[in-house]
């Protein structure tokens, strides 16, 4: 005998413990199974792109801090790279190295948060995984504080270089973090990848087909987990990524497990990059110009960068004035959400939450 | 009537006071004395339950490289009081559309079975409220009532998350009651009695050692009954906000939480009685008989007081282990939980009963030596059973669209 069932619509979010801020999902359930899913976004819209048109180029940097607020360094970097291309500015080596060091540390932070919240969304642990991730994140944020005085909204990259040279005591502190990080990563990895429950909850869940992923313009770890080796740091190296040696970890199945395996591996690769940067960096100026006001020639520019979430780029159009005529943000978090329905339909509520966590999106960037 | 109360020192003191000094009727004395004992037991266990909230947060903090509550009183010991005060001053909201009566009744229905179980637990040598000859069955019967409370709360809240939570609760408890009762049955077979006191006295060796399979099944099933990790799907925070508790606030929420933590303590007590020799173990009286000048330790009173300590110690062990599990394991999905119950725990618990039954036929009224032989047989059996179960049953991903919840209409 089959019981007659009725679909039920549940609105998850914007106030919900695991929607990464103010994301809202309208899920239609048949029992525990999802039969329809619809994302509702816009709760964190702050008009960043319009605000950018009202500000000088240097002032927009602080707006980019607030896009992906767990990864400000890379947002800053993506914006100033686009500006520098527009202006035609050469950046001194030391500035580029400092940017890459900061960005890779930021990538570690972002991936730690991604993995931490992923495990939190798997439930249980009483918060252990999240606390582990945040403990390590804390050390890197301390480094950022030494670099620029801020921890989250850093505004460290400036047009033509970075805000200031690293203080002398930054380097030994960085050394200590680099020495401890591999152990931390192992610990977090053991918590994830050696747990039978984590494996049975994540392996084979919500797989994304590589062709579908490419067609949906997915980028970043989400794309690489599906088996597509695409990384802008390799494809079109910016700053000093062509001078360092690193691998692009690629997953096989594109399931939730792979998405997080890729992130953990990328943390290790980021550590490698920072190590090499420390070896290669030499004394010198860190910033090409102290100018606060730029009047780029009319034209446009776009520099794709590999942010922790995926391809992040700022499409800038200049009309020759002190402010951009148009500033469009190619936000990876937003575009990675495009397969939302395909990932969720047919799975259970518990899987849906984890799949959402595996996308590791950030509402600051989605809604802008 | 009377159960084991006559052997209780406090009971005798109060009874004597009422009858001899005041000259009142003996039935009144019995009533007053029993009330005093009940007051002590209920409040003692509730205090333990609130202390456990503090304990869990402190221990969890240690597991996670942080301190836990440490600002209220020494070591944050007053934190439960601060929490309770906060909850008391919160507005008591009943959502529009809620079934007011059921909504308000649910916390009480949740707490009462917990307290009812206390009636049969021997807390120490000779200190128990009642020595029911069907004690083990009573646990299974009374313990199941909490599910009704969860269902009431979920239904009455008029909230979809709450409904989800309570539906999961029903599916889960229906599945886990069976291995739980089977594990209890194993103990009954070994002890040849359902009385909790008899079970303790029959344990010349802890049944944890004698029947590892039963103990394991019991531990897993009881954590499912307690909605603790990895089975906390009822109030899965990342999925269902707070599950059936979503709409509760103020002291109603407080009573739910108190019941939940007290439940863990009571479960620890049951585990201690059934598998860890209850109040047995003693250090002081052998010490007293061995060392001359400590002879005063080798008396009945000291032994009785010490037995309470050991019992509490074992409950504490269970509580610590529960917290440890909570800090270590993520949550299972509801269908994985159900397949674990039916495909793994149920066969294992049957095997446990079968093996124990055969052994009890061979060694009726087992002595220490017999129990040791049983343990020597049961450990390899348990190991092999776990190995086979791990090989045969996979909790892995199933094809999308097939699930238990599909048959349960959720509106």
Quick structural gist:
The complex is a heterodimer of chains A (368) and B (411). Chain A has 368 residues and is α+β, with helices and mostly antiparallel strands.
Low-confidence stretches of chain A: none
Our Rg estimate of chain B from Cα atoms comes to: 23 Å
Approximately how much helix is present in the residues of chain B? 55-70%
Assess the beta-strand content of chain A as a share of residues. 5-15%
Distance between the termini of chain B: 48 Å
**Structural class estimated from helices and strands of chain A:** alpha+beta
What's the main sheet of chain B like?
none
Number of strands of chain B: 0
Q: What is the architecture of chain A at the second tier of CATH? A: Orthogonal Bundle
Number of strands of chain A: 9
Question: What would the average pLDDT of chain B be, to the nearest integer?
Answer: 80
What is the chain-wise order of helices and strands of chain B?
HHHHHHHHHHHHHHHH
Q: Order of helices and strands of chain A, N to C? A: EEEHHHHHEEHHHHHHEEEEHHHH
The domain count of chain A comes to 1
Features:
heterodimer; A: 368 residues; Cytochrome-c3 Hydrogenase, chain B; 4-stranded antiparallel beta sheet; 3-stranded antiparallel beta sheet; 15 helices; 9 strands; globular; B: 411 residues; mainly alpha; 2 domains; 16 helices; 0% strand; disordered C terminus
Describe the structure.
The complex is a heterodimer of chains A (368) and B (411). By secondary structure, chain A is α+β, with helices and mostly antiparallel strands. Helix content of chain A is 48%, strand content 12%. Chain A has helices spanning 48-53, 57-65, 72-87, 93-121, 128-148, 170-193, 196-202, 210-215, 221-225, 232-235, 256-280, 332-336, 340-344, 349-359, 363-367; strands at 8-12, 24-30, 33-40, 157-158, 161-162, 299-301, 305-307, 310-318, 326-330. In chain A, helix 2 runs antiparallel to helix 3 (72-87), helix 4 runs antiparallel to helix 5 (128-148) and helix 4 packs antiparallel against helix 14 (349-359). By secondary structure, chain B is mainly α. Chain B has two domains: 1-87; 90-395, no CATH class. Chain B is 68% helix and 0% strand. Chain B is globular, with a radius of gyration of 23 Å. The model of chain B is unreliable at 397-411 (pLDDT under 50). At the A-B interface, helix 4, helix 5, helix 7 and helix 14 of A face helix 7, helix 11, helix 14 and helix 15 of B.
């Amino acid at each position: 005998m089959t019981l007659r069932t009725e679909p039920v619509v549940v609105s998850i979010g914007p106030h919900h413990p695991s929607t990464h801020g103010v994301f809202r999902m309208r899920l239609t359930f048949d029992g525990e199974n999802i039969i329809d899913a619809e994302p509702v976004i816009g709760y964190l819209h702050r008009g960043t792109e319009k605000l950018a048109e009202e500000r000088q180029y240097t002032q927009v940097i602080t707006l980019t801090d607030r896009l992906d607020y767990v990864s400000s360094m890379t947002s800053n970097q993506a914006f100033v790279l686009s500006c520098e291309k527009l202006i035609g500015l050469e950046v001194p080596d030391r500035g580029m190295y400092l940017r890459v060091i900061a960005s890779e540390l930021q990538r570690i932070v972002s991936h730690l948060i991604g993995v931490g919240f992923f495990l939190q969304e798997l439930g249980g642990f009483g918060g252990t995984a999240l606390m582990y991730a945040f403990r390590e994140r804390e050390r890197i944020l301390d480094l950022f504080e030494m670099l620029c005085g801020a921890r989250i909204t850093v505004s460290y990259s400036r047009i033509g270089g970075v805000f200031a040279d690293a203080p002398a005591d930054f380097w030994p502190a960085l050394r200590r973090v680099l020495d401890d990080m591999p152990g931390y990563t192992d610990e977090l990895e053991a918590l994830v990848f050696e747990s039978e429950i984590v494996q049975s909850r994540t392996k084979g869940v919500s797989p994304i087909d590589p062709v579908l992923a490419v067609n949906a313009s997915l980028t970043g770890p989400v794309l690489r987990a599906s088996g597509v080796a695409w990384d802008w740091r390799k494809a079109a190296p910016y700053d000093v990524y062509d001078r360092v040696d690193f691998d692009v970890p690629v997953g096989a199945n594109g399931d939730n497990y792979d998405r997080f395996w890729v992130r953990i591996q990328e943390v290790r690769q980021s550590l490698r990059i920072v190590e090499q940067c420390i070896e290669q960096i030499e004394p010198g100026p860190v910033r090409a110009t102290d100018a606060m006001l730029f009047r780029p020639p009319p034209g446009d520019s776009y520099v794709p960068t590999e942010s922790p979430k995926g391809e992040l780029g700022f499409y800038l159009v200049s009309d020759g004035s002190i402010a951009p005529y148009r500033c469009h943000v190619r936000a990876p978090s937003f575009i990675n959400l495009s397969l939302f329905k395909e990932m969720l339909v047919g799975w259970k509520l518990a899987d849906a939450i984890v799949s959402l966590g595996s996308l590791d999106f950030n509402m600051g960037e989605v809604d802008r | 009537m009377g159960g084991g109360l006559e052997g209780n020192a406090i009971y005798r003191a109060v009874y004597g006071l009422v009858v001899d000094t005041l000259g009142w009727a003996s039935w009144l004395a019995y009533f007053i004395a029993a009330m005093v004992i009940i007051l002590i037991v209920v409040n003692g266990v509730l205090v333990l339950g609130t202390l456990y909230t503090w304990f869990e947060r402190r221990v969890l903090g240690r597991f996670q490289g942080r301190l836990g509550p440490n600002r209220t009183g020494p070591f944050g010991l007053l934190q439960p009081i601060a929490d309770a005060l906060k909850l008391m001053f919160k507005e008591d909201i009943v959502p529009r559309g809620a079934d007011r009566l059921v909504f308000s009744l649910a916390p009480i229905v949740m707490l009462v079975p917990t307290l009812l179980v206390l009636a049969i637990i021997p807390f120490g040598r000779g200190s128990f409220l009642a020595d029911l000859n069907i004690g083990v069955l009573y646990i299974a019967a009374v313990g199941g009532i909490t599910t009704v409370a969860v269902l009431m709360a979920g239904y009455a809240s008029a909230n979809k998350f709450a409904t989800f939570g309570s539906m999961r609760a029903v599916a889960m408890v229906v599945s886990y009651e069976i291995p739980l009762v089977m594990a209890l049955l194993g103990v009954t077979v070994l002890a040849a009695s359902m009385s909790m006191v008899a079970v303790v006295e029959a344990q010349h060796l802890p049944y944890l050692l004698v029947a590892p399979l039963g103990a394991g099944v019991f531990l897993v099933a009881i954590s499912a009954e307690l909605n603790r990790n990895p089975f906390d799907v009822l109030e899965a925070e990342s999925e269902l906000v707070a599950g059936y508790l979503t709409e509760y606030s103020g002291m109603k929420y407080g009573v739910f939480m108190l019941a939940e933590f007290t439940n863990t303590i009571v479960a620890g007590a049951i585990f201690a009685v059934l598998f860890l020799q209850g109040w047995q173990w003693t250090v002081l009286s052998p010490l007293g008989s061995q060392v001359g000048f400590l002879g005063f330790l080798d008396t009945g009173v000291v032994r009785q007081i010490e037995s309470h300590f050991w019992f509490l110690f074992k409950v504490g062990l269970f509580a610590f282990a529960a917290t440890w599990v909570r800090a270590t394991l993520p949550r299972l999905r509801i269908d994985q939980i159900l397949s674990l119950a039916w495909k793994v725990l149920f066969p294992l618990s049957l095997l446990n009963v079968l093996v124990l039954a055969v052994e009890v036929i061979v060694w009726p009224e087992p002595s220490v030596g017999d129990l040791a032989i049983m343990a020597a047989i049961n450990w390899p059996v348990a190991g092999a059973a776990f190995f086979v179960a791990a090989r045969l049953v996979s909790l892995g991903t199933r094809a999308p669209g097939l699930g238990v919840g599909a048959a349960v209409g959720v509106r």
